[in-house]
Specification:
The complex is a heterodimer of chains A (247) and B (320). With 247 residues, chain A is an alpha/beta fold. Chain A is built from 6 helices and 15 strands. Chain B folds into 2 domains: 3-171, Rossmann fold (3-Layer(aba) Sandwich), CATH 3.40.50.620; 195-317, Rossmann fold (3-Layer(aba) Sandwich), CATH 3.40.50.1220. In chain B, helix 2 (71-85) packs across helix 3 and helix 4 (215-224) packs parallel to helix 8. The termini of chain B are far apart. The model of chain B has no long low-confidence stretch (mean pLDDT 95). Classes of the chains: A alpha/beta (247), B alpha/beta (320). Strand 15 of chain A pairs parallel with strand 17 of chain B.
């Protein structure tokens, strides 16, 4: 089975969120970059588990980004990808990213395409679905479990108030979230091997973005906590009832 | 602007998130002096009552092949409805169905998509929609430059409106493909209220010391009609099921009231709950970072405070 895992570069979960250039850009100074956790912990690690169960499989990675995305894609190779493609373009919006990946995916003939359920910076969760449409493949979003038997995938997905089990034939696009796999850390052998694994850089095809960020902003700060004594819980309930009106 | 709202449903009922989307769509239509229309795939109850949210007409597509939400099939049907009704703004809830279907429709219609919208579009110059980014730590004003626009509205970001009105339900004959995915089973989570749709969420963390101590939290949630949630360490330790984990890598929620018991409030946890309208923190450590993000707080032992809180809430609710 040929598996394609889509990898994004995102700021670390503890990064300070601030904006530059008149609030039109994320302030990158001093920010640590990581593989988007949903792409790494769930999509990539599940791909590695599937390969461990079926040695004939191969794991291909793709990312859309400039040269600064290389440490991220090397880390993904160290975890267990076999080879990687970096599309040399700055990500502009989900449609532009999905269009770029679609060109690679069409050429590669993959049986399974995995993405994280969203990136932790833009929180769109759109690339997987857009990619599936561009590839004319079925799509299961928000998957918590993925099993493959022959050419049939059994996927559990989150729905409001529960989970649904679905069956679909490969090829298939799946967006992955918690429950899918247990996080791993790269070992020294993986890190050494990653240095020599193929990382191909391709120039982007001409595609457009359908949206653009006009400005970023930070939510107004909280007014400050109102502390209530543990001996006066009734007062808290009174405030929630009469002041905040949420009970 | 011609507004079309996608109505999602489960077990014969329209989802609350879709009532929010309908109210939101009607408001957009009203801004340009038009009426909003809706589209539903399937046959839930209460379609004509969507008039109460300001919907004047509901296009209904029916067929056995729509019983499974196959994004590929749904997107093709919605494309037909959107094209025939001349929709220029299409509204989804950014719930599980919206997240599955809206991106595909975006490609089919080549319509810019804003997923996770939290406010009405600004249409003074262009079409700009505010959405959450960085897991609620910031927002972005996203400009959509295509003739047709798609908005996926975050659950609990817009209040359901309620006014007199009835929607006309009309059948829409669409070409419906055979689904390529089939449902082989489904399970309901233990809680009575869906976490992402809940108005009130009661959440607990490591401060509870073990899974055997959750009874008081469940009792409190019962009385409040709340959904249950937990922090990541609790889910990782298998004290609670992972679908209750809220935070950066779990579920992101935005209830009216979030009560956090014995959770310190790590930045990753806050990222999943910071859109809650009111946050109450109960923690015995006065230095817990969560207090900085809270509206109300009690510095005290959960095992003493929660039973008292339960009694006080029962009194206010008139339950014995």
């Amino acid at each position: 089975m040929k598996i394609l895992v889509c990898i994004s570069k995102t700021p670390d979960t503890t990064a300070k969120i601030a904006f530059a250039d008149n609030n039109t850009k994320f302030a990158e100074a001093g920010v640590q970059w990581i593989i988007n956790p949903y792409d790494e912990w769930y999509a990539l690690v599940r791909a590695i588990e599937l390969k461990e169960a079926d040695a004939g499989s191969s794991i291909h990675l793709v990312t859309v980004g400039g040269a600064d995305a290389e440490p991220i894609i090397r880390k993904a190779l160290a975890l267990g990808g076999d080879e990687a493609i970096r599309i040399n373009a700055d990500p502009a919006d989900p449609y532009q990213v999905a269009s770029q990946i679609a060109d690679i995916a069409k050429a590669g003939g993959y049986d399974l395409v995995l993405t994280g359920k969203e990136t932790i910076d833009y929180n769109n969760g759109s690339v997987g679905g857009m990619l599936a449409e561009l590839l004319d493949m079925p799509y299961v979003a928000l998957a918590t479990s993925l099993q493959i038997a022959g050419t049939t995938a059994t996927v559990k997905r989150e729905i409001e108030g529960g989970e649904e089990t679905l069956e679909a034939s490969l090829p298939l696009v799946v967006s992955c979230q918690k429950g899918m796999a247990e996080a791993r850390i790269p070992n020294m052998r993986g890190i050494m091997a990653a240095r020599t694994k193929p990382l191909k850089v391709v120039e982007p095809a001409a595609t457009e973005a359908l949206t653009q960020v006009a400005a970023f902003g930070l939510p107004p700060a909280k007014a400050g906590v109102k502390l209530v004594s543990p001996d006066n819980v009734e007062e808290l309930v009174r405030m929630l009832h009469e002041e905040a009106r949420v009970i | 602007m011609s507004v079309l709202v996608f109505i999602d449903h489960i077990d014969g009922h329209i989802k609350k998130a879709s009532l929010e989307a309908a109210s939101y769509g009607a408001q957009i239509a009203a801004q340009s002096g038009t009426d909003a229309e809706a589209v539903v795939l399937g046959n839930p109850g209460g379609l004509s009552e969507l008039g109460r949210q300001g919907i004047r007409k509901v296009h209904q597509v029916q067929g056995d092949q729509l019983s499974v939400i196959d994004a590929q099939v749904y997107a093709k049907v919605l494309e037909q409805v959107a094209t025939q009704t001349g929709a220029t703004v299409i509204v989804f809830s950014n719930n599980s169905t919206g997240k599955t279907v809206a991106p595909r429709l975006s490609v089919r219609l080549k319509a810019g998509l804003v997923s996770g919208a939290v406010a009405l579009p600004e249409t003074g110059s262009g079409f700009v929609v505010r959405k959450n980014v960085f897991s609620g730590k910031a927002f972005a004003n996203v400009s959509v430059t295509t003739p047709v626009k798609i908005i996926a509205l975050n659950p609990n970001a817009f209040t359901v409106t309620d006014a007199d009105g009835t929607a006309e339900v009309v059948a829409f004959n669409a070409t419906v493909d055979a689904p390529k995915v089939k449902v082989t089973g489904s399970t309901k989570t233990s809680g009575k209220v869906a976490l992402t749709e809940a108005d009130v969420v009661v959440s607990a963390g490591r401060g509870l010391k073990g899974p055997e101590n959750w009874k008081m939290v469940e009792d409190l949630a019962d009385v409040l009609g709340a959904a249950l949630a937990c922090s990541r360490p609790v889910a990782d330790a298998h004290w609670r099921p992972h679908n209750e984990h809220v935070g950066q890598t779990g579920v992101a929620i935005a209830p009216n009231l979030y009560i956090a018991i014995g959770i310190s409030g790590a930045i990753q946890h806050l990222a999943g709950v910071n859109r809650s309208k009111t946050i109450v923190v109960i923690n015995k450590d006065p230095e817990a970072p969560f207090f900085k993000a809270a509206d109300y707080g009690i510095v005290g032992d959960a095992f003493e405070v929660v039973p008292k809180l339960l009694d006080a809430v029962k009194k206010v609710k008139g339950v014995s």
